[in-house]
Amino acid sequence: MGEHGDFGRRGAKSALDVGCGEGRFCRMLNAKGIATTGVDPTAALVAHACAADVNGGVYLEAAAESLPFENGSFDLVVSYLALIDIPDYASGIAEMVRVLKPGGALLIANLNGFNTAGAETGWVRGALGKLLYYPVDHYLDERAFWTEWRGIRIVNHHRPLQAYMQALLREGMKLTHFEEPAPIAGAPPEKAERYRRAPWFLVMEWVKPG
Question: Is the pLDDT confidence value at 6 over 50?
Answer without folding.
Answer: no
